[in-house]
Write a structure and sequence with these properties.
The chain has 179 residues and is mainly beta. It has a 5-stranded antiparallel β-sheet with strand order 12-11-14-15-17, with no helix packed on it. A 4-stranded antiparallel β-sheet has the order 3-2-5-7, with no helix packed on it.
Length: 179
């Protein structure tokens, strides 16, 4: 199931396979009892679930890296008798940067402006002195910043290395034509 082969006793009840991206060592709980940790592929086999009734399964957030993006940490499932369920928590490792967005004349983008990362659809506020935290950028991130009827675009260089948050420095926000 989910590309995983697991030896076990005969299935007399129900089971699940939990997937946590490709992150090894994430603790998994069934009804708040630790049942194990994910393997090198980010998966774990969970036997002994009660068929047709709610079974609470959750993962330990503290075991995830700081730059992990996750929407939920627990799920309630009610599998059928002698069947299995795949639970994908869809954990993704994101690339995060901090930069200072400035206008062509060197003045910072005003506090409260909103930056939009197109490929994720996420919005981030610009802080004091043009400081901007962006999460989930990739090699082709298009970022638009809007404030008080003004719009400009920035080109954020993709950071090298494995830092959780990379400090990029000053980036000029190029005004859109016609403004």
């Amino acid at each position: 199931m989910a590309g995983m082969t697991q030896f076990s006793r005969q299935v007399q009840d129900a089971f699940a396979v939990i997937k946590v991206g490709n992150i090894e060592g994430v603790r998994v709980y069934s009804e708040n009892i630790e049942i194990g940790r994910t393997n090198e592929n980010g998966r774990i086999f969970v036997p002994g679930l009660i068929p047709y009734l709610k079974n609470q399964l959750r993962i330990e957030v503290d075991d995830l890296p700081l730059n992990a993006r996750i929407r939920e940490t627990e799920r309630d499932i009610a599998p059928f008798y002698r069947s299995g369920v795949l639970i994908d928590f869809d954990v993704q490792i994101s690339t995060n940067v901090i930069l200072r967005a400035v206008q062509p004349d060197g003045t910072p983008i005003p506090e409260g402006a909103i930056a939009n990362v197109f490929h994720t659809g996420d919005y981030f506020p610009v802080g004091m002195d043009g400081k901007l935290f962006l999460q989930g950028i990739d090699r082709s991130s298009e970022i638009t910043i809007r404030w008080n009827g003004s719009t400009c675009d920035i080109d954020v260089p993709y950071p090298s290395g494995s830092a959780v948050i990379t400090q990029v420095g000053d980036i000029v926000c190029v005004p859109r034509k016609g403004q």
